[in-house]
C-alpha cells in the first residue's frame, strides 16, 4: 500500500489533501508544526508527525520517523502582502525560508530513498500567481516562482532514476487561513502612496462573484500529480487557476 507524506496539514489545502488520500486507502503521514491528530478521521493508516520545514533537525527527525514513503507533497507555506518599498527584508527571508528553502530541504531529505528505489513522486504546491503578475505580493510570488523553477529543473535530473516531480498551482481560496496568516506580515498598506493599488487588490480578493479555488480542487490536483504519470508538469487547481493557466498558454 502506498504512503504519502504531506506538509502543512493543520488547515486548508494540506488538511484536505490528507483527507483525500486517506479516503483512497493510502497510508498518510500528515505533518504540522504542532501535531493534532483530532483534525483528521481516526485511521490505523494515519500518522501525525511534528515538522517545521525551516528546522533541519525537525526535518531529519520527521523523515527518519516516517520511514519509506512513495510520495512527498510539499504544501507548507504562508503569504504576505506589502508594497515592495515597505516589505521588511526579514519578512522576505521568512517567506523564502518556509516556501522555498523548506521545500528544497525536505526534498533533499527524501531524494536518496527515491533515487535508490528508482521510484517516487514529489508534488510541490505553489500558486497560480506565478502565472500572472499581481501587485503587493512580489516577495511571496518570487518565493513560489523559485520553487517552480527548482521543480522543473529537478525533473530533468531525476527522470533517469524513475522519480517524477510535479507542480500544483492553486488559485484564490476562501477556505484557507492564507489571509489570516498573511495579515501578520503586511506592511505599508495604510500608506497613502499606494492607496489606490491596495484598494484595487483587496476588492479583487473580496469579490465573491469571481471564480475561486476550493480545497477539494487542490486535493484532486495533487492526487492526479501523484498517481497519473501522464499528468503535465504544471497542474492548475481551481476555476480561477485554470483560467489564468489558459491565458498564460
What would a concise description of this structure say?
It contains 8 helices and 7 strands. It is α/β, with parallel strands linked by helices and 249 residues long. The longest helix is centred in the middle third of the chain and has 29 residues, at 89-117.
CATH architecture: 3-Layer(aba) Sandwich
What is the first-to-last residue Cα distance? 37 Å
> Quick check: average pLDDT?
92
CATH topology: Rossmann fold
How many strands, which pairing sense, and closed or not: the largest β-sheet?
Answer: 7 strands, parallel
Per DSSP, what share of the residues sits in E-state strands of 2 or more residues? 5-15%
Quickly give the structural class: alpha/beta
Number of helices: 8
Which stretches are poorly predicted, pLDDT < 50 over at least 5 residues? none
How helix-rich are the residues, as a percent range? 40-55%
* Biggest β-sheet: strands ordered side by side in the sheet: 3-2-1-4-5-6-7
CATH superfamily: NAD(P)-binding Rossmann-like Domain
From the alpha-carbon coordinates, what is the Rg to the nearest angstrom? 18 Å
Extended strand count: 7
The outline comes out as: globular
CATH class: Alpha Beta
Number of self-contained structural domains: 1
Write the element-wise H/E pattern from the N-terminal end onward.
Answer: EHEEHEHEHEHHHEH
Q: Features of this protein?
A:
globular; 7-stranded parallel β-sheet; single chain; 249 residues; alpha/beta; Rossmann fold
Can you walk me through this structure?
Helix 1 (12-23) crosses helix 7 (215-227). The protein contains 8 helices and 7 strands. It is α/β, with parallel strands linked by helices. It is 45% helix and 15% strand. The longest helix is centred in the middle third of the chain and has 29 residues, at 89-117. Strand 1, helix 1 and strand 2 (27-32) form a beta-alpha-beta unit. It has one domain (3-241): NAD(P)-binding Rossmann-like Domain (Rossmann fold), CATH 3.40.50.720. A 7-stranded parallel sheet has the order 3-2-1-4-5-6-7, with helices on both faces.
